[in-house]
Design a protein that fits this description.
By secondary structure, the protein is mainly α. The protein folds into two domains: 1-121, no CATH class; 146-227, no CATH class. It is built from 14 helices and no strands. The radius of gyration is 19 Å and the shape is globular. It starts with a helix and ends with a helix.
């Protein structure tokens, strides 16, 4: 057993494993039951031990928590944008659930340093046939392109994604609801035109209405736009 897996097993909780199975039903990886804050703390403690990290990342994983930790360790491996992108691309095929997908995307702070290349990476993700690679691309938009870097082309790219995958469509709905909070006037025409699928459209509006950051007048308007 490698040293890092030993640490994860020592931190595991059988009862929390059952909770994780319900929280992340889409993963096929075996679950140890290590809490996310604990995994993040392990990643921080290991961040300067490049040899140990590389050794861990080079072996085949068995557990959900190993893949989660793998994702969180990638940002510590290099200060160079291109190297992180390459590592991310190599890891994407191993993501089989929403939790690792979203946490990994959120951890890649370096993506903010080069918006143009990052958007190219988003388009690379959208060209995939893997649901969680596509969701990862949507996540990148959510975490990096919903403020000043928003562009109408982002929404148009999402309109071209046609899938019945629940986790991809939920991510798109999440993205639209974030825009409703941050750029209401930009996204409202899309809600009025009802150009997304019924599922995405209504989920996005529901999530927007649930937000504490949207005023009641806007919520009232959105309620009238449900399909």
């Amino acid at each position: 057993m490698n040293e890092i897996l030993k640490i994860l097993k020592e931190k595991s909780e059988p009862t929390y494993a059952e909770f994780t199975k319900k929280l992340v039903p889409d993963t096929e990886y075996k679950i140890l039951g290590v809490r996310v804050p604990v995994i993040k703390n392990i990643a921080k403690k290991l961040k300067d031990d490049k040899d140990l990290i590389n050794s861990f990342l080079s072996v085949k994983h068995e557990y959900y928590e190993e893949y989660f930790l793998h994702a969180l360790l990638i940002p510590y491996l290099s200060k160079y944008y291109s190297e992180i992108i390459d590592l991310a691309k190599d890891f994407l095929p191993f993501i089989d659930n929403w939790a690792i997908c979203d946490s990994f995307a959120a951890s890649l702070k370096i993506l903010k340093k080069n918006p143009e290349k990052t958007y190219e990476f988003v388009k690379f993700c959208f060209a995939s046939d893997r649901p969680y690679t596509i969701r990862f691309g949507v996540d990148i938009l959510i975490f990096n392109f919903t403020d000043k870097l928003y562009c109408e082309d982002h929404v148009k790219k999402l309109l071209k994604i046609k899938t019945d995958n629940y986790y991809v469509n939920m991510a798109i709905a999440w993205y639209l609801s974030v825009l409703a909070v941050k750029r209401f006037d930009d996204i409202l025409p899309y809600f009025k035109a009802k150009v997304f699928s019924k599922f995405i459209h209504n989920k996005a509006i529901s999530k927007s209405i649930d937000s504490l950051r949207i005023d009641e007048n806007k919520k009232s308007l959105l309620k009238t736009l449900k399909i």
